[in-house]
Amino acid sequence: MKKVEQVFNYDDLSKEEVISAVKEVMNVLRNKGIEEETITELEHKFKIKQPKKYDLFTSPVCKYLNSKDISVTAQGYVTENVNTKDEIQFPIVSIVEDIRKLEAIMVDLNLNASK
Questions:
Q1: For helices 15-31 and 36-45, what crossing angle results, to 10°?
Q2: Domain residues of the chain, as ranges?
C-alpha cells in the first residue's frame, strides 16, 4: 500500500495561526542550538518581523527638495540584505515638478544649468 502526502497549504491557516506556528518552530530551533541566521530567515520569510525602512523624511535629498517646496513621493522599495538581521528597505522615489523649479535647483547646486 502506498501513502500519498499532499503539499501543505498555508492558505488554510489564518495569518495569526501561521505566525504562532512559526514562532513555536523558532523557539524549538533556538533551544536546539540552530544558528540564529536560520531563525532570522524564517522570521523574514513569514513576515513575523518587518524589515527596517530608510526614513525618507530624514534624507538629506528630501530635506533639501522640501526646503525648495518640491515634494518627493515613495513609489516602492529596494530591499538590501534580504533575510538577514540587517535587512533594510530603501525607498524608490518620484519627483514631479515644474521644469523651471528643477532647473533652478541645478543652478543652486552649480550643476552647469544655464537658462
A1: 180
A2: 10-49, 51-115
